[in-house]
Amino acid sequence: MTRHDPDQVLADTARFPTTDSEPDSALDAIARLALTSLPGIDQVGVALARSGAAIETIAGTGSLVWELDQLQCSSHDGPSVTALEQTGTVVLQHAALEHRWPRFTGPAAARGLRSLLAIRLDAGHKATGVMTMYSTSTDTVDDQTRRLGPLFATHSALAVRHARTVRDLNAVLESRHVIGLACGMLMKAYQIDQDRAFAILTRVSQEKNTKLRKVAQDLVNAAEAEANPASRREVRPQRDRTGAGRAGSRR
Prior knowledge:
The protein has 251 residues and is of the alpha+beta class. The chain has helices at 6-14, 23-37, 63-75, 79-87, 102-110, 143-166, 169-190, 194-208, 212-227, 235-250, and strands at 43-50, 53-60, 89-92, 115-123, 126-135. It folds into 2 domains: 6-167, Beta-Lactamase, CATH 3.30.450.40; 173-231, Arc Repressor Mutant, subunit A. Helices cover 59% and strands 16% of the residues. It has a 5-stranded antiparallel β-sheet, with helices on both faces. A hairpin with a 2-residue loop joins β1 (43-50) and β2 (53-60). The longest helix has 24 residues, at 143-166. The protein is globular, with a radius of gyration of 22 Å. The protein starts with 5 loop residues before the first helix and ends with a helix.
């Protein structure tokens, strides 16, 4: 994977728009740029703080991001949660030997995690989320990644802040929920894993030049319509009653 030198990273991020009309698209793009810019990083995700849950992922470069973020959310235990709620920044190295988050590190290491950098997103005076940079290839976090990681977190925070002014972020979260439902349907129908299901949705999105969330929503809608064929016949009684009404008026 191509890595940029620090000067090129600074130039790329300086040109990056944080006022995209589609904030989830902006966050996806920031995550992808971080992935190709930071040494030793193999997955990047952005998650938002949400009432009733620690974090909820809204952008990521691969399915492992959703898995590891969900693992932290369900247990309310993990470095990203700590960064969001307490310290602001967490560096996790040698994940298999880490004991600070026992409900997270064991299962995460089993999924291939070796190290990570988590940085809180601050919008104004409020913590709004966390950017987590995961590595499955190295046990330590590179110094350059530590220096440049906050730059991407700042851009993510600006994008989140702007998103709150252009639309309700619940719509963004809902789109991710729909993507999750669609992946689950594909996994069940074809007996495939989450990575394969996500790849299928992404390929269809690219081939049709259609947003990923619309591809997922179309799949969910089609499955619901197939499961409830009676819903397509609900209009027939209405037409019958209308016809009866007309017959009565003629008499």
